[in-house]
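Q: Got a minute? One more chain.
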Amino acid sequence: MPRGAAAAPGRLRPDRTVWLLLALTLAAWLVESNGILWRTSHWDHYVYLADAFLRGQLHLFQHPAEAGDMAIVGSRACIVFGPFPALLLMPLVPFFGLATPDVLVLVLTALFGIFAFDRLLAALPVPVDRFRRACATLTFALGTAVHYGAPTGNVWLHAQITATALQCWALWMAAEGRAWWSGLALGLTVLTRPTVTLAAPLAAWLLLQRPAAAGAPAPLRRRLPRLALALGLPVAAAAALHGLYNLARFGSVSDAGYRYILMGDEFKALIERFGRFNLHFLPHNLAGWLLALPRLEAGELVPDPHGMSLLLTTPFLLLLLAPRRVTALEWVALGGAALIALPSLLYYNDGWVQFGQRFALDWIALALAACALAARRVPAWLVGLLAAVGIAVNAWGTLWFQARFPH
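A: Always. Here it is, folded:
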């Protein structure tokens, strides 16, 4: 695109719209949480891990009240989720101790992810108008599990939302042509939730499009090695670091501690029979993602605590059915989303107590980016309606979740 093109300024610097969207999101969370975002979540395992790191050890120095989702080996307790979110908490722990407000840190992380998602849409090689971009960004913020997850906190949501924010940052940097920054962000996803690192093919594709969009394409044989190094080196370094982290804790570079997690007899029986990933789990998980409905309890319509259909909680995804020609970018984004979704669809656990489908956070940014492009093929009123419905449904779910599961 020529230097003076109309779309360039919006890509080089944020417009006022994104700040308004962030303010609306924060206001929603403040209202729904009664203004209490400076707090420590119930499953605040990352605070304990940050405390352990500051004391020079990898296992917890003190044990949280809840042992769920921890690996217990002898007298040692370890966190199985990636360690990076604990690093973000470390500067605060010396001042606030175990009362460190991990919920506030997660909210700020989520706001950064929302900003990065909006900037990703603005930097895509296929332009998206401001209204449709705003609808997609608000859907990402308040029409997905980010809505209830950020002000709720807890170790698993902290890991997932942090990883999703890093993924959005990586894709934004790729769309801007900043390969090394994209590689750095992808590397950090390895240390947070490696599933989201599978967005790397889309990042590579966006980087390959950038020189062509700038009007100065270099030969592919010259660009590929540089891009592979920029994306691959940080990811490989992070994977090696994570392997050493595992080796120091459990004696194996590939053992993150999941086999030591405390779990109920039902899950134990499933794992013993099928393993953690198996096609046996695909029909159940797919049905939950597409077909699960609210249910009646004492005459009241309530969400299914095991999750509900994404078509109800994020109806913005229906834009993928928009007619006419689909762009190459949409196909690549949807292919990346499918690749990332596959491990969750084959997983023995459906996410347990949640609103919507929290495992969908791994790939939802890619799918919503494709939806933003598809939205150009339908009337603006329909785009706005789908975004509004998703936000309303998730607001209902957030209030229900906080009333039913205050921890």
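A: The chain is about 60% helix and 5% strand.
Q: Perfect, thanks.
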